[in-house]
Amino acid sequence: MTRLSFRQKTHLAREEAIVDTVKRLLAEKGFDLMTVDEVAAEVGIAKASLYKHFPSKEALAAAAMVQTMGLALEQVRALDARPELGAIDRLKAITRWTLRTQLAGQMPTLPAENSTLRNALIADRDYMDGLMTLSDQLGAWIVQAQSDGALNRALPPEAVLYTIFARACDPVLGFLKAGGSHSDEQIVDWVMSTCFDGLAARG
Amino acid sequence: MTRLSFRQKTHLAREEAIVDTVKRLLAEKGFDLMTVDEVAAEVGIAKASLYKHFPSKEALAAAAMVQTMGLALEQVRALDARPELGAIDRLKAITRWTLRTQLAGQMPTLPAENSTLRNALIADRDYMDGLMTLSDQLGAWIVQAQSDGALNRALPPEAVLYTIFARACDPVLGFLKAGGSHSDEQIVDWVMSTCFDGLAARG
DNA sequence: GTCTATAAGAGGATAGAC
DNA sequence: GTCTATCCTCTTATAGAC
């Protein structure tokens, strides 16, 4: 833990404020519709100042994605430290965290297939490292849950992994919230149910 | 059935070619990343000619969405005409059609929450009519399937409806296809399974 | 590092000849 | 209705003063 000068602290604080704003705007409108002018205006600094912190719009978005990935990894580590939980419980817990984060407007959306953002992310060491660590950890839980008989063994682990990842951009949450007549927790419960138990009746 | 002049036929044929191209490009890159120049180039006409057929980029996309909605309604009508099928079978069939269509690159993506496209679609009578007819029909199937005991009764019908609609833009299909080692039908089967049976083991 | 001002370019839409 | 050429706005990014 290095001590930071006042200057360094304010620098970090500003970058944090920028990343928070970007995260929110990415969640609201996505990468293409988010403009750098808008980010600068909401943070309350000039656009040129933004570019002193981040060299491009893609880098801005990448920082937001990396930060969110870091939060996810924190959750994963916390869950891994609780031996009373089974693999399926851990998978459900991280999925629930993902849904709550999206509903809170703090989950930056995944990039479209062919965007410049996608290329920037693939080139970003931090992002790719985080993504791989996350995938490995969830993958281990998935295999364990399958061998526990708690998860459908007929599904390949990658299909399960992608299905859980996809909850981060599930439009169903937004649709149900737009209706306005349900609480966030109720919505999360329903989506958790469709995700793990499916639409069809059980039993 | 009115007879059409040669001029009218070529006009219609050209518009069909345009809409087909737009559908494919919308599926590939989405509304924001699709450019009108690109559409014109792929159809093989000048951009100004495009604007004689459709007054705006939004109208172009709306036409593609309306056409796709029409195809979905055709499927729905065909399924409704088969009395041997239960409501749950019909729901599964239309979901499977949706997945296949997306995998074939012919499902235009849903608009983001705050786009100009969304407003244009809401203002489009044809689109909204189709959407409502489709929702009503699927809604009836859902209620029926719940009363048959084939669909989870704890879920509100709208949650089921949105979950099925969302299969049209499920990124899991693309992820699995990008892996390259699975057939399209295999991928569809897995996603059908996660959608209706869930990730958790049954029994 | 922050600002104002501006370059550079993409992309939606249109003018006007044929 | 189709074309070429152009307009104009929006947006990313940078120059240069302080």
Question: What does this protein structure show overall?
Answer:
The structure is a homodimer of 203-residue chains. Chain A is an all-alpha fold. Chain A has a domain at 58-196: Tetracycline Repressor, domain 2. Helices cover 71% and strands 0% of the residues of chain A. Chain A has ten helices and no strands. Chain A has helices at residues 6-33, 36-43, 47-53, 57-80, 87-103, 116-122, 125-147, 157-165, 171-179, 184-196. In chain A, α7 packs across α8 (157-165) and α9 packs antiparallel against α10 (184-196). The radius of gyration of chain A is 19 Å and the shape is globular. The model of chain A has no long low-confidence stretch (mean pLDDT 95). The first copy, chain A, binds a DNA duplex (18 and 18 nucleotides) through α3.
Strand content of chain A: under 5%
Q: Quick one: biggest sheet of chain A?
A: none
The interface involving the most residues is between: A-B, 48 and 48 residues
Strand and helix order of chain A = HHHHHHHHHH
CATH third-tier fold name of the domain at 58-196 in chain A: Tetracycline Repressor, domain 2
The percent of residues in helical segments of chain A reads over 70%
Rg of chain A, rounded, reads 19 Å
What's the CATH C level of the domain at 58-196 in chain A?
Mainly Alpha
Give the termini distance of chain A in whole angstroms: 54 Å
Question: Which second-level CATH architecture of the domain at 58-196 in chain A applies?
Answer: Orthogonal Bundle
Report the average pLDDT across residues of chain A.
95
- Show unreliable segments of chain A: none
